[in-house]
Each structure stands twice: as C-alpha cells, then as structure tokens.
Amino acid sequence: MAFIKKISNIPLYLLAIILLIFTGLPYFLMVSSSFKSQFEFMTSPWSFPKNFTLDSYSAVLSSSFLRYFSNSLIVSTVSVVIVIVISAMASYPLARMKFRLNRPVFILFLIGMMIPIHTTLIPIYLLTINIGLYDTIWGLIGPYVAFSIPVSVVIFTQFLQEIPMELEESAKIDGCGPFRLFWKILFPLLKPAVATVAIYNFIHIWNEFIFALVLTNSKENSTLPLGLREFYGEFSVNVPGIMAALTLGSLPLLLVYFVAQEKIVKGIAAGSVKG
C-alpha cells in the first residue's frame, strides 16, 4: 500500500517540479546575470557566468542604492505597522459586535478593495502638496496605508470570527475591559493573520512605483523602485547592475517570507473559511 501511495503521488511531484522551474528560473537568471560583465551578458544572456565578477555589486553599493533602500525600508515598515494597528482594531467590532451597520460597514471595506488606486493619483497629488508633504517619504505613507486597510480589515475580520466567543466571555467575567480584552487576549491569537497582512502589504508597498514617482521629486526621498532608473543610460542599460540591485532589493522580502511563511499559509487558510 505504501508503494502504491508513493506511485500515486508522482504526478503531484512532477507538477511541483514544473512549478518550481517556472517560478525559480527567473530569479536564477536574475542572480546569475548580476555576476556577469556587460559584455558577457550581451553575448550570452542565458548562459551560466563564465567569469564571476562583483563589479555590478560594487557599482550598486557605491551609488545611492543604500539611500533608496533605507527610504523604502522606512516607508514600508512604518506603513505596515500603522496598517496592522488600525485594521486589527477596526476588524474587532465588525467580527465580535452586533450592531445595525455591521454588514454595511464591512461591505464598504470590500468596495474599497475594488477601487483602482491609480484613479486617485491626481487628488492625492494635490492633497499632498496642500498639506506640505510633497517630496517627503512621509507623504507616501498616507496613500499606502489607506489602500492597504480594506484587504487587511477583511483578513482580520474573517480570522477573528474563527476565535470562539467563549474565550471572550471568560475574559469579561474576569473583569477584562474591551481594550485589554483585544490587546491582551485576542491580538496574540492573530499572529497568522498579522503575518499575512504584514507580508502581503510589505511586498506591495516595497515594489510600488507610480505613487513614489509622482509624490517625490528628489534622489534624497526616492524609494528603491525609482532608484533602479539610475542604471538606465540615454543610449544603453546596465543590465547586470540592475540585476544586482534587484537581487539585493529582494533579499528582505525573501528573508521575511521564509521566516513567516508557515503563519502566512495559516492566515490565508483561516481567512478563507468564511465569506
């Protein structure tokens, strides 16, 4: 029986290998190209590097890459923290309290997920100028937080609905107030949802380009996606340099995802139980 079971799993293993090739090959080509010279890349773009060189990484680190990297890290981290706090608190009454506008308010958050964010680019640009936050990294946080809250509230709400009410009732009997009940009892149980919301929004904010392009105007306040333009010349493109910058820029995302991937899967599964 064990042998038959292993045979029956062969198609799944083959499918997993095919998916690994399709998803891993682009990253492999990105990393391998970063160790090539410009001439070697132009002559053999798909081959493995014959002469490993760190010139592209030296060029990246000697440029303003670290400035762009730190700006993206600050904006992404601060935005994600604010999103988690606001979304978790907003989801608590939607998931645990019964009131007349419960369902309409939840629907409003669902509608917020359907709004094309780039249709709001001009109003947000004018608002950012009027409040004096144009060309600052802090001016990026507001739009990022606003557009990340709807999906985050939905995830937290669905996850909170899975927590037994008996746990909350026991805490209330012991004299626990709403604020302490949420932060001391319920919020620690939301670790899978927190990991899901954090990684999902961190990746989106880290890679965002359009708002960063419109709301900033100087190299000092540019984020990493904007900084990659530094490797584009008027008549040529430093492809190995771009690949080196992309490799370094993707390391935080890969590190955080590999550390929290188990909680992410649990959070997505828990959030999809109820609709």
- How much of the sequence lies in strands comes to under 5%
List low-pLDDT spans: 271-275
CATH architectural designation of the largest domain? Orthogonal Bundle
**What is the N-to-C succession of helices and strands?**
HHHHHHHHHHHHHH
Helix content: over 70%
Instruction: Determine Rg (CA atoms, Å).
Output: 23 Å
Question: Can you summarize the main beta sheet?
Answer: none
> What is the average per-residue confidence, as pLDDT, rounded to a whole number?
85
Pfam families: BPD_transp_1 (PF00528)
Keywords: Cell membrane, Membrane, Transmembrane, Transmembrane helix, Transport
Protein name: ABC transmembrane type-1 domain-containing protein
Transmembrane segments: 12-35, 73-94, 106-131, 137-160, 181-203, 239-260
Task: Report what the structure shows.
The protein has 14 helices and no strands. With 275 residues, the chain is mostly helical. It has two domains: 2-11 and 15-43, no CATH class; 56-271, MetI-like (MetI-like fold, Orthogonal Bundle). The longest helix is centred in the last third of the chain and has 33 residues, at 239-271. The protein is globular and about 70 Å long. It is found in: Cell membrane.
